[in-house]
Amino acid sequence: MGGDGLFEDVDLTWVKRKGTAFYLLCLASSLFGIVMLGFLILDVLYEAALGPIEFEISLTTFLTDPASRHPEQAGYLGAILGSVWLMVLTVILSFFIGVGSAIYLEEYAPDTRITRLIEANLTNLAGVPSIVYGLLVLAVFVNGFTLGSILLAGSIALALLVMPIIIVSSQEALRAVPSGMRDGSSATGATRWQTIRHVVLPAAIPGIMTGTILALARAIGETAPLIMVGAILSAIRLPSGPFDSFGSMPTQIYYWATAPGPEWGHLAAMAIVVLLAVMLSMNAAAVLLRNRYEKDL
Amino acid sequence: MSRWAYRAELRDLREELLAMSDLVCEALQRALDSLEERDAALARRVIEGDDEINERYLAIEGHCTELIARQQPVAGDMRFVVATFKISTDLERIGDLARNLATYATRGERHAYPEVDAGTIGRHVLAMVREAVAAYAAEDPSACYTVAERDAEIDRLCEAASGIVVRDLLAERGPDESAESLLADASRLFLTIRDLERVGDHAVNVAARTLYMVEGNDDLLA
Amino acid sequence: MSSQEQTQSNAELEIETEIQSERSDRETRADEPVLEVRELDVHYGDERALQPVNADIPEKKVTAIIGPSGCGKSTFLRCVNRMNDQIDVCSVGGELYFHGKNVYDDDVDPVALRRKIGQVFQRPNPFPKSIYDNVAYGLRIQGKTDDLDTRVERALRRAALWSEVEDRLDESALDLSGGQQQRLCIARAIAPDPEVLLMDEPASALDPIATAKVEDLIEDLAENYTVVIVTHNMQQAARISDKTAVFLTGGELVEFDDTTTIFENPANQAVEDYITGKFG
Q1: For a surface tag, which of A92, A247, B92, B214 has the fewest beta carbons within 10 Å of its beta carbon?
Q2: How many angstroms separate the CA of residue A177 from the nearest CA in chain C?
Q3: What's the domain count of chain C?
């Protein structure tokens, strides 16, 4: 055979061993996170399952009634509805302002020092601890405008919290629209507004939606700013509207988890399962949305 | 300077054409000598040498078409390739005419018309061919015009020579000469004159193509 | 004959008659330049991108612009429909007359200008919409919505794309091949019937077969439109254009003449060196 010994002078043994070692190290690192998450979920599921089994907490009551002093009568609906209200108001308050400022910054703003200052501050705002937003709303809206500790105040805090995230992710989505499309539109005789309305926004909207949903998934789990604003920890009745006092899913969990007595812990676990399910399905929706549209661009 | 392989090919093509022109001029020179000195052996060498010229011609043609196909020459390069292609055809025809002249030298033992100076005409046309090729080699537009102007002189000489033959044919009819040999001599001389004149025409063509090549000027292209 | 075929042949008939009427139009105003460029120069900040350009671009002919990368040929093209306006640091001097009107006059709205001077770009840039909506885009934003179907079909026919897409007009334009996408962009540009069509290296991202189709198309388009095409493919310029402008490094228009003259016997030695490949 002519090829015998052709590669004898090439010794890859050590290089390959190092490669394998590095591969295993990386695999272990990524497994670490997954394993931890798995433990967490299993633990929570186990605790949650014990609730109905050992303490005879009724699932029906849990999902259809507000909270109560008595664990067997305690439900999560008040908190769930509070969170739903919060999210709806937060979206209304933050989405249009956020997308509007993203469009201004990407499509209209000249590249000046002021523009760059605004953009840098947006990035900084996204990193501000959430409790600070709670303090701000407490000072300005709850006490300043004497709104009181109402649901609207809570959603203002959450809206302020997610707005920088929505702006930044909307900017990314707008930037991802190829400039060739804008050129193609304006070269066809479209005004800037027509270009944005008919070409840029339709192309960017999946990305904007994805960013918004992810931001909301973060907001729905926020506890600190709501406590700061004065949310009632245990939602013993259903909220009647934006001007009512309110509870929310994470504050309810906080309340139950710190309450004395073993039943409360299991209630908290069950509440966590619901909150996690909501968050994970929001994330899943965002991923689906992204996968469905990103191949089109 | 980029496309160096292409530029080298263009230079090679030019060298090939000049080499072919050397062969053609030599063949023409020998054909004229063989006519003058009635050297049958020399004439045969000219006749045999024509194959070589034809091969060179085909090689140049091949290289031109290849250059056009693969390099898509434009502007000056395009004019160079096209002119070289056409000039090689003219040179090949001059080679054929040299062979014809050599063929006439192998026939006919006698020289019927001493007053017809085919040798002088031959020297003139050979000089024209050399000048035309030199103009090509030097890319000299004024030399092209000079060649073209000389053609009028050749035409005049050839006409005069033909006139002599015709007059002699009408006047002289010696009793010792058979009509047939007289006719053969006369027609051979006619052909000689005609072929020399054609060599001159081809020399003008070479000059005309050269002028086009150098200046993009088609004045001399009839 | 089915009703569909009937409408097809009607549309073709319509195109025929229109082309004929446009031809007679053309004869009456033959050889009048549609674009007159006078001392047009461009700066990017402090850097000069284009030396003063003077040129007369003839109507309903193909004018090619060639030159090495960075010679300002695309910059020049973008001056014609004022696409350079969108670049903050870009400043344009001199005049550019379109039918005798300087397009850089204060009272000329670039949006209005671009409705008369369309452009096709280097990379096909269809919108993420259906094939139909892409072609109808310009018509809709310009409010030319009567006979939308007929106009869309006519544009697609002129762009030599109709037979390939007629039964899938509702499908996404992004599912087309690169060559089809570019012809779609051409259809989109000509659908609102501009007078001038600017093309910035329209075939450079395409394979040879798609390129050949686009080149055929450009020659056909010159029946109805004034075409100005930037290309870095000199053979392409030689094949399809009537006039050729050669820009060389430094943003200078060095020679502007009939394409045959440029490619057979250019006046300028630097142009000769460039097109024969001795330079660049």
Answers
A1: A92
A2: 10
A3: 2
